[in-house]
Amino acid sequence: MQDKKTFYVTTPIYYVNDVPHIGHAYSTVGADALARFKRMDGYEVYFLTGTDEHGQKIAKTAQEEGITPKELADRVVERFKEAWVKLDITYDRFIRTTDEDHRKTAQAFFKKVMDAGFIYKGQYEGWYCLPDEKFLLDSEVKDGPNGTKTCPDCGRVVERIKEENYFFKMSAFQKQLEKHLADHPDFLQPESRKNELINNFIRPGLADVSITRSAVKWGIPAPVPEETVIYVWFDALINYISALGWPDGNLYKKFWPADVHIIGKDILRFHTTIWPTMLMAAGVPLPKKVFGTGYINKDGKKMSKSLGNVVDPFELAATYGPDALRYYLLREFAFGMDGNYTDEGFQTRFNGDLANDLGNLVSRTLTMVEKYFVGVIPEKSPSLDIEMPGPEQVGETRHLMDRLAFDVALEGHWKLIKDANKYIQTSAPWNLAKDESKKAELQKVIFTLVEVLRVTALRLSPFMPFTAQAIWEQLGFGDKVEKHAFSETEKIGTYSPGQKVKVGVPLFPRIEKKEEGEKAPPTGEGGIEAVQNALKKKLAQHFKSKNLKPDMGWLATSSREYPELLAKGKYGFYVRTPDKKRVIIEIEKEKLMDPRSADTLNETMTAEAEKIMASAG
Question: Which of 407, 239, 260, 386 is nearest to 331 (CA)?
Answer without folding.
Answer: 407
